Amino acid sequence: MLCPSKADMKIAKNQHVKYLLRHLNLLPARASSYDSTRLAVAFFCISGLDILKSLDVLDEEKKKSIIDWIYGLLVEPKISDNEQGWERCGFQGSSTFNFVCDGRQDDTCPYKSGHLAMTYTGLATLLILGDDLTRVNRKALSAGVKALQQENGSFCASLEGSENDMRFVYCAASICYMIQDWSGMDVQKTINYILGSISYDYGIGQGPDLEAHGGTTFCAVAALSLMGQLEANLSEKQINGLRRWCVLRQISGFQGRPNKPVDTCYSFWVGATLKLLGAFHLIDYQQNKDYLLLTQDPITGGFSKWVDSSPDAMHTYLGLCGLALMNEEGLEKVHAGLNMSKRALKHLHGLHKKWDQ
Ligand SMILES: [Zn+2]
Q1: Model confidence over 252-293: pLDDT tens digits?
Q2: How far apart are CA 207 and CA 199, in angstroms?
Q3: What's the 42 CA to ligand 1 centre distance in angstroms?
Q4: Domain positions in the chain
Q5: Of 26 and 205, more confident
């Protein structure tokens, strides 16, 4: 890859737009293992185009076909006033699951149930595309979230048995926030789980007694923020400790844990956490920007996690978001808590007002 001097580096906007479009249309062979989470890949691409202020490369027909595809991934009971089967409600990550279910469209296939990360990215993508979520049964979706909360306050990803940890606490909080229905979450239990996962060094892990990590610290802080429970539940000492833990993750870009290499995605995970904690101004913007721009491929587009590595859709999206957090020129501003553009969030808040009437 060409390595320009730092002073020459600019965001290779056109190349990133093409990179994201390519991944939206066809996953490269080496990314085939992501097929089951295809909806998340679509979110990275579409939200990435939004951050690049380039959503208009998708014409109305294409947007409509993507919206229809996403609704095709929604597991929802056929009769909306019958609560039977609501615990399975949510989005799946790929239409491949329909083949796994051998074409059965009823609820008898055990693989026919939503996945919290896919429901979060599905709803977010619909909002980014300007959809008004009218085809979502919000009560059923809420019941689907509720069915996944565990006794200790954490959430599983799906009914088919999965890990339960901070990642899905964040997804659950994002879903409840987007559909403006918190009945799917025992908020106090969730808060207790988050507070119990604060490590001795004030960073936050996947759960109690686990090592603090940049990704899970974001999930915990953003979940509290979306619940409107951030300041009320963390002491000044804890907030300052969290700020210190996050600021110390900056090397040039950010690392996810002490003694780990710098990685593009943490410019968002840790940067967004600092934004939510009101301490983003404490970082060195220039060093962060220099690292991020060194990980972009200026020829074929995309960002990788490390300099001179292969780009992927997730690091491309989070690299762009990391730059957007610093109000980089030419990029849409990003909302740290929901991990989508402030433009899309405004559309969501418009829907909330409508639902309130
Ligand atoms: Zn990463």
Answers
A1: 999 999 999 999 999 999 999 999 999 999 999 999 999 999
A2: 9
A3: 18
A4: 12-356
A5: 205
**AA letter at 207:** G
Which of the residue ranges 35-39, 78-82, 154-158, 317-321 would you say has the lowest mean pLDDT? 78-82
CA 101 to ligand 1 center in whole angstroms: 33
Q: Over the stretch 110-148, which tens digit does the pLDDT of each residue have?
A: 678 899 999 999 999 999 999 999 999 999 999 999 999
AA letter at 134: T
DSSP letters, 153-198, are S-EES-TT---EEHHHHHHHHHHHHHHT-GGGS-HHHHHHHHHTTB
Res 111: pLDDT: 73
Q: Assess contact for 164 and 154: CB atoms under 8 A.
A: yes
Cα-atom radius of gyration of the chain, to the nearest Å? 20
Separation of CA 120 and ligand 1 centre (Å): 19
- CA of 185 relative to ligand 1 center, distance in Å: 29
pLDDT tens for each residue of 17-48:
999 999 999 888 888 888 889 999 999 999 99
Token code pair at residue 173 = 């909080």
CATH class of 12-356: mainly alpha
The chain-wide mean pLDDT, for the chain, equals 93
Q: How much distance in Å is there from the Cα of 173 to the middle of ligand 1?
A: 22
From the CA of 218, how far away is ligand 1's center (Å)? 13
Q: What's the length of the chain?
A: 357
d(CA 109, CA 99): 11
* Residue 315 CA to ligand 1 centre (angstroms): 6
Q: Distance from the CA of 170 to the center of ligand 1, in angstroms?
A: 18
Token reading at 199:
């490590």
Could you give the CA distance from residue 326 to residue 122 in angstroms, rounded to a whole number? 26
For residue 6, give both structure tokens: 């730092």
